[in-house]
Amino acid sequence: MSHELHHFDMGLWVFFLAYATAVCGSFVGLSCARRSVVVGGATGDATPGGAPTGVRWIAMAALAIGGVGIWLMHFIGMMGFAVPGSKIRYALGPTLFSVVVAVGATFLGFWMTDRNTVLGRRLPRAVTIPLGGLVMGLAVTLMHYSGMAAIRIQGTIAHDPAFVAGSVVIGVVASTAALWLAGVTERIVVRVGAACVMGCAVVSLHYTGMAGVHVTVDPTAPIPVGPTVTSLLFPAFVIGILVLILPIVALLLEPATDGDRPRQRVSVGRRGRGAERDRGTAHHRGSADAGAVFPPAPDARSGSSAAAQALRNQGVSLRDPEIRVIPRR
Description:
Elements: H1 13-38, H2 54-77, E1 89-90, H3 92-112, H4 118-122, H5 125-149, E2 151-152, E3 155-159, H6 161-184, H7 188-211, E4 213-217, H8 229-253, E5 265-268, E6 276-278, E7 292-293, H9 304-313
Antiparallel strand pairs: 1-2, 3-4, 5-6, 5-7
Helix pairs in contact: 1-2, 1-6, 1-7, 1-8, 2-3, 2-5, 2-7, 2-8, 3-5, 5-6, 6-7
């Protein structure tokens, strides 16, 4: 006979905290995944300033999404789980295994869809994204149920197969969406919306699986021993904050990509009319032959290429709307 259990024993604030954690982890992870695409994917070289290579960005994305957005969110949600008449404890082995699965699955999914790996070069993205989403979704679901296997109560825990199947479907769809969004969320505004959607998917997977939980309390069974969920969460929170700080600092130190600012071009007039930016097309002034999209071919008469190089050497961005390149006459 199934026993009574609670999913929000500490109040609804646990649910909102779990969702916020999933969104934060997803946003940072999507930003890192996008950055790995910009620098050349898993085989990309290190940037001149010594910034992480593509594979390091993928690793940071896996830690943010898998470690914080999925695993930490799961155990925050478990704070509300209570079984009247029984203590709840956790086995350390399955708990550590679940975090390894979450991070490893996320890394594998991003690696499988990278265009610069052997798999990415041989198969189109229409194949690698669903394939990576399937592998990643199954592994994320495995993470959820391995975390559930760590629970120790004075009795037994069972899962409804229908809800298990539903959580698998949600996990695969959410993982596929994450892999697709990682390649298209160029702008920060779009990335925030994508992180909110991913947060909904992760929370839905968790509570769908929890809705299918049935417990049977046996008063004669041994009282469970081991750490409580709160004692697990304290070090997990500290590690989770550090995991997010590392990629956030790396992202802040990276130069902004074209997707984070308006796409504009610089034109340089050959007859001394000053370069100016516009949105999409270069507006020329003067004669019909004036204007060339920067950088022009080396011109000994104007010296514009030398001026542009000098500005670059001084760290001046030619994309700045306040900068005008005026060639020599």
